[in-house]
């Protein structure tokens, strides 16, 4: 009989053999294995590759497909600081018409693009695949390695993205999506005319100009958030002429059997199927305008995007500062508003961006009615409120007018959405709602601080002009406009957002401007930010007066003070905002005397609302439960919400 010790020894031996068998089997199932995963490392190291027995590994270091261009792996690969290597793609001059002609006066950019005369930052991209005895190649695996970045300027607090694709997908004369290409050379029109600018490879759109790529995302702590295959396209309108260019990233089943980017990139729980890497558009020197405006008005009743800053590397070379944002599509609407994505309709630039071809009649019928109907009549305006979410429209137009949008808005760059069918959901009522995008040009500039964009919008938009003939609309627009002026665009709030941006982005933008414009300091960035700050600081006094004149108001601006007896007891909504009270439980703003201010009190648990006090006689109030409408007097008005603990 075997001793207990012998039995245990035998069991251990059997377990060891089983583990070894499972390990061998796991090695076969795992396929190609990198000894070190993508990431940031301070010291050079040797990368080892392994694959199933009987196969041969091929790899590349230039982004090309290893099946066609790879070297046979025979020994570990030294991974060191790739920045010392020669600049390749960064030296191309066919990525923008700016490099090839000085005759495009309308589209010359300041400052001018230059090629970097120093080794730009780089990472090592390793692409590998194995080949079996029958000549069949495995799927390509891609990893990106950043060596020596701990103290490198421009990356502190930044996310990092590495986009890797076959270089010909970007730069090939015939099929490259990032270059002027054959389309530019074979254009038959006048050389460098506007039509010529649009006849380039990078101006093409649609699925035929989508290319496969691998993206890897690292967060601020250098954790790998995502390593996924996807499709890439050039994104945008006139900004395609510039470099760096914006891109859309598409998760599709054919690339990775995923259909979504299953990572929460914006802290919202939203798992997108399409993302946009936004290069800043016309906002070349700061890349701040879209983000700043979206942040200032993110609590309003139109959609805004989230913006996360990234340092982007393209096939291993530093490609500048980008913003990662959502893309407005059916998945976005499903995640943001809880609607059936198959029932979503999005209109952009007056055309169907999401939905069925016949859905365009839903839009054109609405526009036709609103542009050709007497909206001063209450019954017609009541029908308008069934067609559109009037607060969404007012919020959106008030914000755009305030920031100085003109020229290509509102005649263009406008987006809105609705559900095709009417259902029970909060946002499934079939009404149109607005989507904010593209505020990076022709806005927020000191030289237009005094521009009357209220008058310009009334002139350009028959829909807005007609709405302004209705008294109910005028009242709602005027009070909403002042709500925005007193909160979203209030000087202290604006300065806080702008200062935070300057503090966090000065160094990254310094690296970016040196890469593309040869600028050795951040003065251009700081000067451009000062220009935005100047506009926002000085805008209110002009645009508020223009709004008054445009609506034909006859009153004057007067101070409105709102108080609360105990900030822990409850909250107060003033018109469309919830004032943030100071340590004394007080908030102050300004409103026109033409219309009363409307306040609603809400008690927290353990408290109850008692009533209102005001500097205006109660005989002049209009009270409805916990809501009160108080007229604004020329000398101002004070209103106080009184709460007490329950049981007292």
Description:
The protein is an alpha+beta fold. Helix content is 29%, strand content 24%. Strands 10-11-12-13-14-16-15 form a seven-stranded mixed barrel. Strands 2-9-8-5-6 form a five-stranded mixed β-sheet. The longest helix has 29 residues, at 523-551. The chain is elongated and about 90 Å long. The termini are far apart. Residues 1-29 have low confidence and may be disordered.
Index terms:
648 residues, seven-stranded mixed beta barrel, five-stranded mixed beta sheet, 16 helices, 29% helix, 24% strand, elongated
Short structural description:
With 648 residues, the protein is α+β, with helices and mostly antiparallel strands.
Query: Number of DSSP strands?
Result: 28
End-to-end span in angstroms? 85 Å
Radius of gyration: 30 Å
- Characterize the overall form: elongated
Instruction: Extract low-pLDDT stretches.
Output: 1-29
Question: Largest beta sheet, briefly?
Answer: 7 strands, mixed, barrel
What percentage of residues falls in helices of 4 or more residues?
Answer: 25-40%
Mean pLDDT: 93
Q: Oligomerization state of this entry?
A: single chain
How many helices does DSSP assign? 16
Secondary-structure-based class equals alpha+beta
Strand order of the largest sheet: 10-11-12-13-14-16-15
Strand content: 15-25%
